[in-house]
Structures are given as C-alpha cells and as structure tokens.
Amino acid sequence: MSNKHSLKLGVVPTRRDLTGEFFCNVDVALANKRATEKKLTDMGVDFVNIDFLNEEGLIYSGLDAKKVADYMLEQKVDAIFAPHCNFGTEDAIAKIGKLVGKPLLLWAPRDPAPDAMGNRCTDSQCGLMATGKVLRQFGVPFTYMTNCTFDDPVFERTMNYFLGAAQIVKSLKNLRIGQIGVRPEPFWSVKCNELQLLETFGVEVVPVTMIELKQSYDAIMANEAKRLDEMVAYYKETFDVAVDDDALRRTAALVSAIKDWADAHEVSAIASSCWGPMRDIGGVASCFAFSELTDMGLPVICETDVHGAITSVIAQAATRWTKSSFFADITIRHPENDNAELFWHCGVFPKSTASKTKKPQIGVNFDEGRPTVGNFLLEDTPVTVMRFDCSGDHYSLLVAEGKTVPGPATKGTYGWIEFKDWPKLEHKVVTGPYIHHVAGVQQHVAPILYEACKYIPGLEPDLAEPSLEEVQALLR
C-alpha cells in the first residue's frame, strides 16, 4: 500500500492525576492501556503511543499536552485515539486535539462494578463526559465511541468507522485533481469553481492539454514495446476480449500516458474529457483505460467532472482504499421495481466491481462501435452511491445506501440498484445541488461519510438512506 493510502493512529491513553489504593489505581489504568493496545494490534491498526512521555506511557497533566502533540505531529499521525484508562485528564486531551488538528476518537473501557466493599477504581465514563465538554470548549470536533468492553462489537465497528472517516480526511488534505482537456460544451452541469475548491478545501486542479497527452502517447507507442506487450498479454488473459490486439495496444499506451503524467504531477484523481480529441489520440474510446486506472487507485472520471473526481476519492477512501469506486450515470427506473434504478456508464466501471459469473468483456462503445470499453454487470453486493457537489458556496455530500438487484441487460457497464425509497433519492438529485453523476462503492459506508464530514469544514452530509437518525444509531 502506498504511503498516501496508509493510515497511522496516534494513541494517547490518559488517567487522572490521582493514585489511590482503590480509586484511580495506577495499576488498573496501566492494565487498561495494555489491553487497549493489544486490541488495536489484533485488529491490525498501525499506531504509535506515548511511551516516550514517562514510565507509564499515560498522560495525566495538561502541561504535557504540547510535548505529546509535537510528538504526534513528528510521527505524522493521521488521527488521535484518546482511551481514558480511568477518569482521565480532560484539558490534556482537549489541548492535544486542538494542537494536532486531526480526527479524534474518544472512548474508555466499560467500568467494572464496585467491589464487595463498594470501592470503584476508574469512573472512566464520568471522565468521558468531562472531556467531551472541554473538547467543545476548545472547538475540537471528535467522534465518540460508546463506553464498552473490548470484546463488544461496538468497539471494532466504531473504530473501523472512525478510521475510514480519518482516511477520507487524509485523502482530501492537499488533494490534487488532474484535468485532461475541457468539459464537453453541452455539459453545463459539470461546471465547478476551481478557486472556491482551493479556498474552501485546499483542492488543487492541475490541467494538461490534449496535445501534451498525445505527445506522451506517441512516445510510448514508439519506444516502449515491452511495456505495451506485457499489458496486452494481461488484458487477453484477464478479460473476454472482443477487439483486436492493435486496439488493446493503443489502449495500453493511453493508460500508460495518463498514469505517467499523473505520477509526475502527484495527482490523486483525474477529471478527463472523453469525447472528440480524447478519442482521436489513439483512435480508441478512453472508457476502458479509465476503468483500469481506477482499479490502480487512480480514479479517472469522464466528461471532465471535477466534482465527480473528488467524489470518487471520497468513495475509495471510505473503504480505506481497499475497494475501487465506479462512476455512473443515473439513467432510468427499473421496469418492474419502483425502488430500483439503472446506474450505468459507457464502460468505465473497473473490473474489480464486475460480476464473478463470467469474465468482464472488453468491447466497443454503444454510440460509435469504437473500441475499447468495458461490458459487464456489477457484482451482486451492498452499494453506497454518493455525490460531492455545490450550490453557490454551499457544498454537500449526498449519501444513499442500496443493493444490486436483477434487471434487464444493457450495453456498457451497469447495475440495477434498489433503495428503500427511490423517489426520495430522485427528488434530492433533481432538486439539487446534484446532477446525474454519482460515484459508487460496493460497501455500506454511510456512517463513515457522515463522520468524515464532521472533520471537513464547509462540507455537510446529505443523507437520503439511511436517515440521520439511523446513521447516528449505527454509531452508538
């Protein structure tokens, strides 16, 4: 996994600055610290702790907050986890949260019952309430995990939601979106405000002309025969190929030209023209090339939809870059199922999203009969579709969870997706600020998207399915 798609958690265990035989017993706090770190290790979480700070590796003074924050920034952590190993130290955690400025998860192991003499040793739930108050005083957004035991399913579920949200925040930090060519003239709906994206979210748009891409393509075709031979062989082995080898070779050169440019300019996703001049570069449709690049962890979005490219980064980051997104038009209602809709595009869905019932096909596009595009049905899975978009200076993220269902076959890459209440989603899209383009991912990630918005100033979650109340219940 590349460094930009990794995630490092900073673990800051805390106790109260008291040392009693029973209440705030240090040995109990240390046992909770060790158990917390073992749980994270068992889950495969990459983390650093604060063992450098003192013999205990626990923070119990607000005076140490800057020292801990400086260390976490030095270690390049992407999020903070503050387990309260007893009541904890609220000002220390709030100060660290403010200074580090990364997503913060607040939790404590469930307190044991009083012993036979009525003694209590932790009161950590009480401390969580104090810390929550002080975090709000400091203006620090945070995620709260319900006070639970280590083996309670709530722990892993909430931790994974939080890590997914932190991954989205990291992926949007200093995001660079490549733009190849210009939008198709009729597509007013994909217009965006490049300066506003930079000022609001720090998103940079990095342009390249078709002429520059053509020059790279020609050089690869002329000089990199071995690279292209290997790619063509891979396509023929992996796909049901319904085009000739020359088309595959030209497609491989287009994939390589785009990938080389993206790597050189450190872009994380691309919004590209896909009509006219793009088809002229190699005489092939770009759809299959875009799908392959998306499966490489570089989402490439057609019709120069910059907001669509940002949405695709959010979608893949929500899975911690373990799944590829697919970019779809919302097209027609199911002929028999009033809550299902056809999500389709010419042939840009990545192969990892395809049904396993047969090999995905490399074929020709629906409008010109031009190679090369994907032709296949989505795998039967849960799905979340989403759209990052704006009206004026107000940005929101549309979120809807559904599932794939059977429906009539069509050309290109497609899937029929069913929702609990399709008309509700339809009205949200039409009345805005959204368009017919969405990114989808084959996993239910609504709670992750909702939490991520908490840490992205200027972005509001717009939940269609599940509802706000249902998402908040999942986070409890």
Write a short abstract of this structure.
The protein has 476 residues and is α/β, with parallel strands linked by helices. Helix content is 38%, strand content 21%.
Describe the structure.
The protein is of the alpha/beta class. Helix content is 38%, strand content 21%. It is built from 15 helices and 19 strands. It has helices spanning 26-42, 65-74, 90-100, 124-137, 153-172, 194-201, 210-223, 225-238, 245-265, 277-282, 287-295, 306-318, 422-431, 446-454, 468-474, and strands at residues 9-11, 47-48, 79-83, 104-107, 143-144, 176-180, 204-208, 240-241, 269-272, 300-301, 326-333, 340-345, 361-364, 371-377, 382-391, 394-405, 413-418, 437-441, 459-465. The protein has a six-stranded antiparallel beta barrel. A hairpin with a 6-residue loop joins strand 11 and strand 12 (340-345). It starts with 8 loop residues before the first strand and ends with a helix.
What is the topological layout?
Elements: E1 9-11, H1 26-42, E2 47-48, H2 65-74, E3 79-83, H3 90-100, E4 104-107, H4 124-137, E5 143-144, H5 153-172, E6 176-180, H6 194-201, E7 204-208, H7 210-223, H8 225-238, E8 240-241, H9 245-265, E9 269-272, H10 277-282, H11 287-295, E10 300-301, H12 306-318, E11 326-333, E12 340-345, E13 361-364, E14 371-377, E15 382-391, E16 394-405, E17 413-418, H13 422-431, E18 437-441, H14 446-454, E19 459-465, H15 468-474
Parallel strand pairs: 1-2, 1-3, 3-4, 4-5, 6-7, 6-9, 8-13, 9-10, 14-17, 16-19
Antiparallel strand pairs: 11-12, 11-18, 12-17, 13-14, 15-16, 15-18, 16-17
Helix pairs in contact: 2-3, 3-4, 5-12, 5-14, 7-9, 8-9, 9-11
